[in-house]
Amino acid sequence: MRLLDPFNINHLKKSGVGELPGSLNYTGTHKKVEVTLEVLAYGKDGCQRYLLRDIDELQIEDKKYWINVTGLHDIELIRKIGEKFQVHLLDLEDVVHVSQRSKIEIREGYLFSIFKMVYLKEELVQHEHVSMVLADKVLISFQEIAGNVFDGVKEHLVQGNGRIRAMPIDYLFYSLLDALTDQYFLIINSFASAFNELEVKVLEENLSNTDEVYRLRKELLYLMSVIGPIREAIQNFTMGESDYFSHGIIPYYADLMDHLKQISDSVKSYREMTDSLYAMQMAKVSTDMNKTIMTLTVFSTIFIPLSFLAGVFGMNFKYFPGMDYRNAIHIFTAVCVAIAAGMLSYFKLRKW
Amino acid sequence: MRLLDPFNINHLKKSGVGELPGSLNYTGTHKKVEVTLEVLAYGKDGCQRYLLRDIDELQIEDKKYWINVTGLHDIELIRKIGEKFQVHLLDLEDVVHVSQRSKIEIREGYLFSIFKMVYLKEELVQHEHVSMVLADKVLISFQEIAGNVFDGVKEHLVQGNGRIRAMPIDYLFYSLLDALTDQYFLIINSFASAFNELEVKVLEENLSNTDEVYRLRKELLYLMSVIGPIREAIQNFTMGESDYFSHGIIPYYADLMDHLKQISDSVKSYREMTDSLYAMQMAKVSTDMNKTIMTLTVFSTIFIPLSFLAGVFGMNFKYFPGMDYRNAIHIFTAVCVAIAAGMLSYFKLRKW
Amino acid sequence: MRLLDPFNINHLKKSGVGELPGSLNYTGTHKKVEVTLEVLAYGKDGCQRYLLRDIDELQIEDKKYWINVTGLHDIELIRKIGEKFQVHLLDLEDVVHVSQRSKIEIREGYLFSIFKMVYLKEELVQHEHVSMVLADKVLISFQEIAGNVFDGVKEHLVQGNGRIRAMPIDYLFYSLLDALTDQYFLIINSFASAFNELEVKVLEENLSNTDEVYRLRKELLYLMSVIGPIREAIQNFTMGESDYFSHGIIPYYADLMDHLKQISDSVKSYREMTDSLYAMQMAKVSTDMNKTIMTLTVFSTIFIPLSFLAGVFGMNFKYFPGMDYRNAIHIFTAVCVAIAAGMLSYFKLRKW
Amino acid sequence: MRLLDPFNINHLKKSGVGELPGSLNYTGTHKKVEVTLEVLAYGKDGCQRYLLRDIDELQIEDKKYWINVTGLHDIELIRKIGEKFQVHLLDLEDVVHVSQRSKIEIREGYLFSIFKMVYLKEELVQHEHVSMVLADKVLISFQEIAGNVFDGVKEHLVQGNGRIRAMPIDYLFYSLLDALTDQYFLIINSFASAFNELEVKVLEENLSNTDEVYRLRKELLYLMSVIGPIREAIQNFTMGESDYFSHGIIPYYADLMDHLKQISDSVKSYREMTDSLYAMQMAKVSTDMNKTIMTLTVFSTIFIPLSFLAGVFGMNFKYFPGMDYRNAIHIFTAVCVAIAAGMLSYFKLRKW
Amino acid sequence: MRLLDPFNINHLKKSGVGELPGSLNYTGTHKKVEVTLEVLAYGKDGCQRYLLRDIDELQIEDKKYWINVTGLHDIELIRKIGEKFQVHLLDLEDVVHVSQRSKIEIREGYLFSIFKMVYLKEELVQHEHVSMVLADKVLISFQEIAGNVFDGVKEHLVQGNGRIRAMPIDYLFYSLLDALTDQYFLIINSFASAFNELEVKVLEENLSNTDEVYRLRKELLYLMSVIGPIREAIQNFTMGESDYFSHGIIPYYADLMDHLKQISDSVKSYREMTDSLYAMQMAKVSTDMNKTIMTLTVFSTIFIPLSFLAGVFGMNFKYFPGMDYRNAIHIFTAVCVAIAAGMLSYFKLRKW
Ligand SMILES: [Mg+2]
Ligand SMILES: [Mg+2]
Ligand SMILES: [Mg+2]
Ligand SMILES: [Mg+2]
Ligand SMILES: [Mg+2]
Ligand SMILES: [Mg+2]
Ligand SMILES: [Mg+2]
Ligand SMILES: [Mg+2]
Ligand SMILES: [Mg+2]
Ligand SMILES: [Mg+2]
Ligand SMILES: [Mg+2]
Ligand SMILES: [Mg+2]
Ligand SMILES: [Mg+2]
Ligand SMILES: [Mg+2]
Ligand SMILES: [Mg+2]
Ligand SMILES: [Mg+2]
Ligand SMILES: [Mg+2]
Ligand SMILES: [Mg+2]
Ligand SMILES: [Mg+2]
Ligand SMILES: [Mg+2]
Ligand SMILES: [Mg+2]
Ligand SMILES: [Mg+2]
Ligand SMILES: [Mg+2]
Ligand SMILES: [Mg+2]
Ligand SMILES: [Mg+2]
Ligand SMILES: [Mg+2]
Ligand SMILES: [Mg+2]
Ligand SMILES: [Mg+2]
Ligand SMILES: [Mg+2]
Ligand SMILES: [Mg+2]
Ligand SMILES: [Mg+2]
After folding, report:
1. Total beta-carbon pairs less than 8 A apart between chain C and chain E
2. Which long-range contacts (CB under 8 A, 24 or more apart) does E332-336 make?
3. Chain A partners (3+ C-beta pairs within 8 A)
4. What is the pLDDT of residue C83?
5. Residue E5 — pLDDT band, cuts 50, 70, 90?
6. Domain B289-349 falls in which CATH fold?
7. Where are the beta strands (DSSP E) in chain B?
8. Torsion sign, CA atoms A204, A207, A208, A209
9. Closest approach of B54 to chain A, Cα-based (Å)
10. What pLDDT, in 10s, does the model give residues B39-61?
11. How many other CB atoms sit within 10 Å of the CB of residue D341?
12. Are the C-beta atoms of residues A290 and B285 closer than 8 Å to each other?
């Protein structure tokens, strides 16, 4: 699995350097996506799901409305939706500015939030910028491409599963956040597999190439930079007072917070473990080198004196005592064996 | 002792990705355990202990009730118990979701808590997910397998030891937490032994394999990830106001907090010590390598010039002055000894 | 690109060691800049832009005034402006003291702020000390050299773009801060390119020189030391109560805070990544060394015994059994090949 | 000096795993100490000092009483004292549980505190568990062995030095804490000496054994784990409101806090310095190794080609041009010298 | 420049271990200094400066008084001054206890503060313990030796520069703190020079000795341990409410705080840079070693096989095929060149 590829830790392209505040520029890459305007109008008794061609076609009756906008490059549409629901220009700017950090902010008349979808698609991680506007009976979600993260929630609405139709609209907001969060678990499980594989390689197969540990570290940094702001945003939101908390919703947000804490704990643990694995890998390189050098030293220190000795008796001095001694070669052999044995037992003694 | 084996730092399996909130799925591994429903009904004067076949059989009279459920895979039973005592579905979801973090939360009508049992059983560490629901006169505990962590408390109840029968039911809640916490001390003592053994190996036996230090680090990370949330949960709980604090209970919770602080201090100290031990181990590898290389260098630098000299006099030049000089070999020997002595004293001087 | 050159992490020259508090000394280097006093007087209906020779020439009517002072070495002018608008001497001291940290402070009758312009100019990073005094209908900005950071805002004012003319003067203050902040994005993008280039060099080209990583670290430290105080200042300002917040301005400051958080997150991420890159570079050096030593060891341990053997048969002993054996040289060759093969397969076995 | 020996960073033996809360078990090692019950009854006019055989003998009159219990293994005595002064069983449990962390807690009717005596005795560090119960006119101190830490305070009481007799009983409590704290200064000075000796060894004598740095780190960890909770306890105590603060006592507690801050600053500084010293020691090992390898390389690279050359001319080829050239040996010598000189100047050039 | 010499990070000598609280012992080293009692009596209209022989001679009229005591070893004088102005004995203890941390405390009737003078004198850093008592119209300063840090303030008072005579006495207190703080800038500039020199040595001259980096680290630790408490003290003081804040003084304290923040930022930056420099130095040692070993390996692996070959043909076997072949030597030479060239191109290929 390739967890994060292509990898780019911070899309810092700022929307409109030098432009007026509230200038809408889509800063993402999905500019060829078909823009769709899907509506799910629901109440206790049922749910209608239909597509609009324009936001003007929308008739607000005594129901709850989820307007799901896919594709962010149609600036005019975004502006029109913003005008219809009186969304601040600065918020619309963030809707189309894909490198904006996650946040939840309470405005006059609506709640505005930015999140990051991170999900697996064919073994590749996809990143998507998502915004949600939560007004009295309307929730508008904006996303870059059509995708399956929110599909479960749509299904529950259409089929009338659980309490989602009966509950106020902030329960829908919670459900979408819950769907987003569920994806992080999958990502982290996928990361965990990558880590475990690497651990086996390092521990058992003595892998000494650190490129993979480096890549894991970078991916963890990315996950932390995504999850940190989301956790912060939801924590601040649930700990504050809000008109957007209907009766009985608190345990649901608390449950969401539980998940985010767990994800964040997990990322931190893996970070420490990655550091630890790197340290051990370095230790293995040192220990291996030590062994290699020891082998070299043992061989060299045994044979270097012996070679010298052989060299000595290869000298062509005319008067060389003992050269014509009958047992010279046997004595030489014995001395060599003695020297070698002596060296070896010395090394044994020093526990090499 | 094998502290944590099989080791898996984060069970991140989320209960029901994409499912409705409040979907009950047992995410643990103990699916063949016999499900039992044990009741301890007690008051000042006595304590009855019996098994139920179904929760409907339970008759609530003017007593205090501890309902101890063993085995979490019978979802229907859990749901029925939840309905009888009006426990929120999201809480029941956490009861059977074994990777949920520890926490204490105050709900309408009851207090809900999640903890982790970590205990030694035949030299192996067992992990168990435990939840407790504390209502007016009823405490329900849920655990994965039958075990001995709560046995002491049962014994005190049945035999009427101490003040446990006389005190309100939150004292039972405290007693169970205290029993859980006691196990952590045993775990840490066991960890301490492992550390001390490793320290001896590194310091005295020059162990250079870092796999064990790596394993200890990982185990410490696991202990921190378990103890951190428990400490946080109990600290927040005892520092807040609560209807679940009967008169005179505060010193007991404070005592519990003392133990958790001590455990947490201890884990942090061992963490630092493990880092320190790793650093020293690396230092030893470097120092050893240094010594080996020095030995090699001393041998090489002494014999390399001598061998060259021997080689020179082994050359077959026809006109080689001094080759037929009578004392050539003696002079050669003397020069060799002088060179060797010179090198050695040079090394002594430089304190090698 | 040369990100920060000449690099000097802390201009600590203090204004007037031993002098009286409120002694004005320009501590920067731009002492030859032409001092200009530019005024933009604007209201809903229009904007006039003109230069003054002296501050006395300024006529305050029922408009909003932006007085933009370029060049800080004319102490007398600064003092005169200070007197006219009743700015505290300690603040004027900071206006001309270029190493003063960024801050926003609320004084009696005006708001005083210090910021740092950091912007790219011909591939070089420029640093500039900027102060702003925000009074009822007047904003005075002081900068060291004429430059283009504020030019966009001037253009919007003159051309009447957006809401800048219609909004109260604190919107102008916000707009200038926004223009400053936009430059940091450009700087960080430029830093990101430098990092990515270095990463490629280290990962793919095996660069082992750490000078560049060192330089990147230093540059990050500088960016952190600049951005930290600015973020802190704006955070404290927007979280407090102030007479300087007109109706509807809050979302703008919040947007600014978003940008600063993003910049600061980004700098922190790059810092971690730089540390990580350094660690990997070190790992590569170790691994390379290990391979080199292994090569040496393999060669040496194979040939050292063989050379010894050759030396032995080169000895001039008169009685040397086997020297006149016909197949001696073939046996010798076979033995050599056997030894070499044995050593090689031993190394293969140990996975060298 | 042997600072901490035998060294055991955390006595985690828990009092009574599985026992009832409030079970008294002495968990220390001083079980043969003679148990004494010393009373100092004092007032403005005098001070009587006597030993009791049993706590029942104590007559409370209109005086202030310091009851100093030495020896903690006589559980019955401790329980009796606890009953007489209505001390909570959980507190008595902590009195005899020597691994309990330092703390100050306010109970109904008394203040309960745990501290650690750490003092030098014959060049060895002693550790002692001390508890104090401060009631209206009575202070009870419990310690493990008779010792001299509190002797100064007793002397001042008996001799009537200073204001101790005239001040309320919380001044006695402060005086005992002050006496405890004074010992930490002595310990740290002793640690400082050890550090300075080690620094000299590393810097000047090139010590490369890291065992001592490891030991110092461990000792610092121990000191931090002792001082941290004490500082925390006293800080929380002095910053809170309390019935146990008589008029004029605050400056005394503040003075105590000053000392604890200084000790704690000092321990932190030494910790950083120890880390720094370790880093430098490692650097020295690397640098030394580098020098050794350089020596080896210089020798080898000079002589290896020369030896080869000598070997060449030692070959027994029948047709070997130049072998019978008269000046062959002189040319050979010249070539050798030239090669050696060339290599050496190359190394000089590369600044080896 | 020698920044800190002799260097002693923590003077922990405690005033009077075992003595009564409030025992006055001068713990510094300047015991031969002449004790002087200088008075500056000033008001709007003038300033008189004179020396007293005894504190009894002081006549308090309707003026502001700065009493500057030089020399702390005359305990009796200190006690007398303390009595005259009703200073608490514990504060007097701190006046003469030179290792007391910096602090500001509000007492009944006066403000008590401790600071550290750190200043350059003939290229050496001097350390001095300074205390100040600020009462209604009197400021008493105590310092160890006569020196020039406060001289500028005296001059301003005597010459009537600025607003110092006209302002209430807390402005004098501020002015003295400002004078102290100015010295820290000088110290840090001096440190910066030392750092820059070292950086050049490491980067350009390949210095591999880490002693100097170690010394810089230690000096930074010292500066942090001095500046930390001062910053803390002034921050707490200016953020609190106080009777000692006259009208208009706040901006002056804020200005002081600015300086302390800047100094403290600077020290932290240098600390990170020192760590970074150390890391790079270590990297250089590794890289150098790598190059040396590569050189050795290239030489050895080329000549070792060649030498073996030469050795083979130097063997004295009687039947040695090819020994009397006419071109043997030429073939041998060709083979040698081929082997060497092969090895070299292999190394080139692997980019050594
Ligand atoms: Mg903009
Ligand atoms: Mg982002
Ligand atoms: Mg999508
Ligand atoms: Mg969920
Ligand atoms: Mg849940
Ligand atoms: Mg680590
Ligand atoms: Mg779910
Ligand atoms: Mg968990
Ligand atoms: Mg169980
Ligand atoms: Mg307990
Ligand atoms: Mg206890
Ligand atoms: Mg460490
Ligand atoms: Mg000044
Ligand atoms: Mg600055
Ligand atoms: Mg400019
Ligand atoms: Mg902006
Ligand atoms: Mg925005
Ligand atoms: Mg790192
Ligand atoms: Mg217990
Ligand atoms: Mg302890
Ligand atoms: Mg004792
Ligand atoms: Mg004291
Ligand atoms: Mg004091
Ligand atoms: Mg360090
Ligand atoms: Mg004392
Ligand atoms: Mg100090
Ligand atoms: Mg002085
Ligand atoms: Mg100043
Ligand atoms: Mg200033
Ligand atoms: Mg470091
Ligand atoms: Mg660093």
Report:
1. 174
2. E332/D312, E332/D315, E332/D317, E335/E309, E336/E306, E336/E309
3. B, C
4. 96
5. very low
6. Methane Monooxygenase Hydroxylase; Chain G, domain 1 (1.20.58)
7. 36-42, 47-52, 64-70, 103-106, 111-121, 124-134, 138-143
8. negative
9. 27
10. 999 999 899 999 999 999 999 89
11. 11
12. yes
Q: Do domains D2-285 and D289-349 have the same CATH topology?
A: no
**H or E element: which one contains E246?**
none
Q: Enter the ipTM.
A: 0.88
Radius of gyration of chain B from its Cα atoms, rounded to whole angstroms: 34
Task: Give the containing element (helix H, strand E) for B226.
Answer: helix B211-239
CA atoms of B273 and B281, how far apart (whole Å): 12
Q: Do the Cβ atoms of B308 and D303 come closer than 8 Å? A: yes
Rounded Cα distance between E41 and A91, Å, is 63
Peptide bond between residue A321 and the one before it cis (omega within 30 degrees of 0): no
C276 neighbourhood in chain A, CB within 8 Å: 214, 217-218, 221
Mean pLDDT of B63-73: 96
Q: Scan residues 63-122 of B and list those with Cβ closer than 8 Å to A.
A: 88, 90-91, 93-94, 99-101, 103, 105, 107
Q: Does B338 touch chain D (CB under 8 A)?
A: no
Contacts of D258 in chain E (CB under 8 A): 94, 100-101, 103
Quick one: which of C165, C155, C107 has its CA closest to C132? C107
Distance CA C237, CA C88 (A): 20
Interval E40-58: pLDDT, tens: 999 998 999 999 999 999 9
Mean pLDDT score of chain B: 89
The C-alpha atoms of residue E177 and residue E150 are separated, in whole angstroms, by 9
The helix (H) or strand (E) run that includes residue D293 is helix D250-313
User: What pTM value is reported for the model?
Assistant: 0.90
From A14, A229, A314, residue closest to C311, measured CB to CB:
A314
Rounded CA-CA distance D303/C306 in Å is 19
What is the percent of chain A where pLDDT is above 70? 95
The CATH fold assigned to E2-285 is Beta Polymerase; domain 2 (3.30.460)
Q: A295 vs C318: CB contact, 8 Å cut-off?
A: no
Domains of chain D, residue spans: 2-285, 289-349
8 Å CB contact of C12 and E266 = yes
A 10 A CB-CB count for C300 gives 21
Higher pLDDT, B17 or E199: E199
DSSP class of C320: -
Nearest partner of A260 among B25, B8, B223, B14, judged by Cα: B14
pLDDT for position A247: 80
pLDDT at B206 over 60: yes
By C-alpha distance, which of C143, C144, C162, C142 is closest to C152?
C162
Compute the half-sphere exposure of residue A299: CA atoms within 13 Å on the CB side of its CA: 20
Give E250's pLDDT tier (boundaries 50, 70, 90).
confident
Instruction: Give the confidence band of C8 by pLDDT, cuts at 50, 70, 90.
Output: very low
Residue of E317, E320, E332, E344 to mutate when probing chain C, most C C-beta within 10 A: E317
Instruction: Please tell me if residue E206 touches chain D, with a CB cutoff of 8 Å.
Output: yes
| Averages of pLDDT over each 10 residues, chain D, 352 residues | 41 63 88 95 94 92 95 95 95 93 92 93 86 95 91 94 92 95 89 90 85 89 90 88 80 92 92 92 89 90 91 89 86 92 88 70
Of A1 and D201, the one with more pLDDT: D201
Q: What is the pLDDT of residues D69-92, one digit of tens each?
A: 999 999 999 999 999 999 999 999
Which pLDDT band, with edges at 50, 70 and 90, does B345 fall under?
A: very high
Contact list in E for residue C18 (CB cut-off 8 A) is 152, 179, 182
Distance CA(A216)–CA(A274), nearest Å, equals 7
